[in-house]
Amino acid sequence: MKYLLLIICTTFTITNSQAVTLKSLAIKSNHLLVISNRLAAQQKVCSLDFTQVSEISQNLKADIDSKIASLQPKDLEIIKNRSATCAADCTCDIYSLALEHHSIDHSELDKNAQRLTAADREKCLKISGRKICAIKR
Questions:
Q1: Which of 37, 81, 96, 123 is buried most deeply by CB count within 10 Å?
Q2: What are the backbone dihedrals phi and psi of residue 90, each rounded to the nearest 5 degrees, phi first?
Q3: Cβ count within 10 A of residue 44
């Protein structure tokens, strides 16, 4: 029974760690930017204040940095090819950061990231199908 529990716990941990992708972190980053924009416009968002958003942002940055550092060459190749579609889900900025970290040309992704407006980010939030208040989790 102890071994079964250990296997279940190990499997659960591995499954959860595999579920965190750079794309999911980039989408979460977009959500956080939308929340920050709304707070700056003095709109209430999920009972969050700037201090809480800053804390979430610091944790997210650490997660993104860790994920970027662990990317393999095949992952980076996939990311390079996403410049044409990244604007649709507002992931260009994080993908660009990943390529920059690995000293790979990221100019196209960077251009696409700079073109994104606050309205575009709001659209991406709606398209993602995630609730904005899920950012706390």
A1: 96
A2: 60, 45
A3: 9
Neighbours of 3 (CB within 10 A): 7
Whole-Å CA distances, 37 to 22, 34, 136: 22, 5, 16
Length of the chain: 137
Residues 6+ apart with CB under 8 A from 27: 89, 90, 91, 124, 128, 130
Query: Could you read off the pLDDT tens digit of each residue along the chain, which spans 137 residues?
Result: 443 333 333 333 344 445 789 999 999 999 999 999 989 888 888 888 889 999 999 999 999 999 999 999 999 999 999 988 999 999 999 999 999 999 999 999 999 999 999 999 999 888 777 777 777 64
- Judge whether 38 and 50 are in contact, CB under 8 Å: no
How many Cβ atoms from other residues are within 10 Å of residue 51's Cβ? Answer: 8
